[in-house]
Amino acid sequence: MSEPVVTTPLSVRSVTIFGAVAVGVGLVGFLVGIAEPVQATRAALPATREVISAEPAPSYREINSPVVGPNAGWSSPLSSLKQDRPELFAQVVRTPEMKEAALRDRLRTRAFDEAPPVIPHRVEHQSANTCLVCHGEGLKLGEKIATKVSHPHFANCLQCHVEQVGTAPTSTVDINPTIANEFVGIQRSGPGSRAMPGAPPTIPHTTHLRNDCLSCHGLVARPGLRTTHPWLSNCVQCHVGHGVGERPQISGEAPLPEGAR
Q1: Cβ-contact 221, 138 below 8 angstroms
Q2: SS3 state of residue 141
Q3: Cα angle vertex 9, ends 6, 12, to 5°?
């Protein structure tokens, strides 16, 4: 007895053939696609571009530095107001009239000779650093001279120096603390003596708190008191004091005795 013959419908064979063709076409397209080189495409740049300026970010080392921030480009204009300092080896012109004028100007801010000078201007800040801005190395603005301080290590300038009467704001009533008394301050001792003509003069005043001779006799000083040799650094090598008390006593009531000239 023979087995029956199974026949496949036409529709089933068509689907099988179509699926095989589709798989083949997809495989061929995949192989062709991976074989072609990839070409990068870039968008066309505009003719003009907007320039955006931005400051570079500071490094970690500069974060705590004062050169970073809104005041990084700020600088004090005080240095631009300074006049040119005299040259170190420039010739010094010093006449007796200039010396007398310098001494009288020096006494103008002192109650007596060797007293702490008063401050001839208003004081808004009480820090010693604000005083050293002008008096640290000396400053000359026009005809006004801020002499160099000879004791910059002290932290409280107002402990000895007070504002002069009349320098307070106009809204404040000036009070004169001076009361009637019989106090008489010492007078200026006069010029230093010389052992012989041409010898270095002695120092006619005490050097307590005045050990920096250039504060009164340096480049930025009253013209009548300037030294002719500011480049020498050890003044007491040639100039010495008077021994005990370091000053001679000259009697007299005149602020500038005849011997001071």
Answers
A1: yes
A2: strand
A3: 120
Per-residue pLDDT of 91-119, as tens digits, reads 999 899 999 999 888 888 888 888 899 99
- Helical H segments across 53-179, by residue range: 78-81, 96-107, 128-135
Nearest to 213 by CA among 196, 201, 197: 201
Half-sphere exposure at residue 17, Cβ-oriented, CA atoms within 13 angstroms:
6
Is the pTM higher than 0.70? The answer reads: no
196-249 pLDDT, tens digit per residue, is 998 999 998 888 888 899 999 998 889 899 999 999 989 999 998 865 444 444
CA dihedral in degrees (190, 195, 200, 202; nearest 10)?
-40
The DSSP secondary-structure symbol of 58 reads P
CA Rg value for the chain = 45
